[in-house]
Write a structure and sequence with these properties.
The structure is a single chain. It contains no helices and eight strands. With 85 residues, the protein is mainly beta. A five-stranded mixed β-sheet has the order 1-2-3-4-8, with no helix packed on it. It has a three-stranded antiparallel β-sheet with strand order 5-6-7, with no helix packed on it. A hairpin with a 4-residue loop joins β1 and β2. The protein is globular, with a radius of gyration of 12 Å. The model has no long low-confidence stretch (mean pLDDT 87).
């Protein structure tokens, strides 16, 4: 199962995608709009996703790779970004 989380304040689902990216699904009730966001700082693939219940549009991503350093990344304004560094 792919890791994902629902931001109930912004009505957006965030999930893993390919290495170095995440998927943003705007208005999941209609299923009409998804965006792949490039996250150049991500080391490997997304292995965990958590939308902050306290800070609007802040998403935490955990990454995993066997050949690089794993980490936790905080993405602010994840609802509007098309690229994250």
């Amino acid at each position: 199962m792919n890791p994902w989380d629902y931001d109930n304040i912004a009505n957006i689902i965030y999930s893993c995608n390919t290495s170095g990216t995440y998927l943003r699904w705007d208005d999941p009730q209609t299923g009409s709009t998804t965006n792949v966001v490039t996250a150049t700082g991500f080391a490997g693939s997304v292995s965990a996703v958590h939308a902050s219940p306290y800070t609007p549009n802040r998403v935490y991503f955990g990454t995993y790779s066997t050949s690089t350093v794993n980490g936790i990344f905080v993405v602010d304004n994840a609802n509007t970004g098309t690229s994250v560094t």
